[in-house]
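If you are new to this repository, start here. Below is one unmodified record pulled from the training split, so you can see the exact layout before writing a loader.
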Amino acid sequence: MKILHVVGSRSGFFRISPVFRALTAAGADRQVIVYAGYRDELVSGDMFLEELELPSPDYVLGVSTGTSAFQTGRSLIALDPIVLREAPDWIFAVGDVDAALAAALVGRKNGIPLAHLEAGLRAGDRLSPVEINRLLADRLSDALFTAERETSEHLISEGIEAERVHFVGNTVADTVSRLRDRSSALELPGVLGLEEGSYVVALLQRTGGPQRPGRLEEFLEALDEVALETSRPTILVLDSLAAADVKEQRLEHLLAPLTVVHSPSYVELLALVEEAGTVVTNAREVQDCATVVGVPSVAVGDLAVGRAEIFKRGNHVSVDEMDRLPEMVSRVLTEQPAPQRPELWDGHAAQRLAEITMADLPMAIV
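And here is the target side for that same chain:
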């Protein structure tokens, strides 16, 4: 069996890493990785792929800039000849990025079954490009792999046949479980002079498409207030893109109350997260990482939604209410118990997924 993975952003590699290994162990003859981003993002991230035990992508499309519609169109054009050349038995689309929707369309138009990893997330905003990607990719998928039972139930309530929906758990939990011994051995918080549970880790992931003016500035101003009001060390994680945005927007003065960590590896980031008092981020894989290691998190922005447990706890701040962030972080630090691992976030999600895939499920064309 040949599998073609379409990964639209670096965060997608966290999710496919255990899937790639599990499918190999289950007998997949060949796996092809297509990355929608740019090769220079991976040149600087060789350690990133090494840590995740993934080979370099077979194809790099370089289409991850521009509007959502523009990225989707370019992804369609770039993916079609690759799919025809490779003729995979399955296409795996990861997440809710534009490349995932393009993969779903190319697969359906060429009669190749599609598996959607991290299916069923919903924000309730059908005007959002990301929400459109989620809805259409799920509708076109033959196998929908979900991380939460509530998500599976929601898909079925939307009219998707139950036999296409598979609750397997969260593959990010697999990645965290595999790398946690290595991250703990770093003792990175101690190197930085931080005590366990005493600090806040913050990361704002740049989203695709045009950015709303002032968004980064509002986030940094809110983080400054977090540091001042809580008197807790506040660690800001900046990758190269975010650091360039800070410089371009002349926001360096807002970094003064913060401790900035530049472009940590995934193992280093995990080392910081697992001993934090709380994590503030819009990156779903980082929220999931915090949940797995038992650290409460605050989800920032509309792109972070989709985790039932986060909303049960009420730990969510939209992009238009950053002034609420300091109060929420303070509450989480003082009142929020450690989150419990959700059902099936046990480090074996990819194994379950591989067993289902290798069973060669029949296509269920809508």
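Two things worth knowing about this chain: The chain has two domains: 2-170+345-358, 174-335. The longest helix spans residues 68-86.
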